[in-house]
Amino acid sequence: MRILAMVVSLLCLLVVCAGPASAHSTKGRVKAPLSKADPGINDVAYFVESYVHRVLYSKAAGGGQERYYVKDFISMKRERDRARIDFTVLDKKEHRSFPETMTIERGGDGVWVYRPESGGTPVVVFTFVKKGALTPREEKAALSITGFLVAAGLIAVIWNRKRKRKALCETTGH
Q1: Are residues 106 and 65 in the same domain?
Q2: Are strands 29-33 and 68-79 parallel, antiparallel or unpaired?
Q3: Element of type H or E holding 79
Q4: Which domain holds residue 73?
Q5: Can you give the pTM of this predicted structure?
Q6: Is 172 found in the same domain as 116?
């Protein structure tokens, strides 16, 4: 029984910890416009990191691509269809960091866009989703089925142990 409990605990830890470890990996993922109603930092990180690295400071730095990187994300505050993303930028050339903010808006079509402060063309915010990603409804069904199977397995193990104990007691006369 203890071994079964340890195995179930280990599996639960693997399921919970496996996601964050590959949070910013694009392996097995496809690029898609961000259309989540309530996005988090992990959802916008792909876009922000790429935009800061390739576009945001390219004109000001005289084409200084690959000079600026997102060092860390501080916060993301959302109010209705707008979200403010606060983060720290690392300037590799001057070996310094500084705070930066980007604001994204959700359009009428449900897709989030970034409107550059310079008044340039709005840019669609993208994210990476797993190929064949499950919808929330399918995820709940999969979790329900998994929970049912684990519970059924546990009941079967307990029932089998009781049956063996009862058979042992009958053969020994206790």
Answers
A1: yes
A2: unpaired
A3: strand 68-79
A4: 23-133
A5: 0.59
A6: no
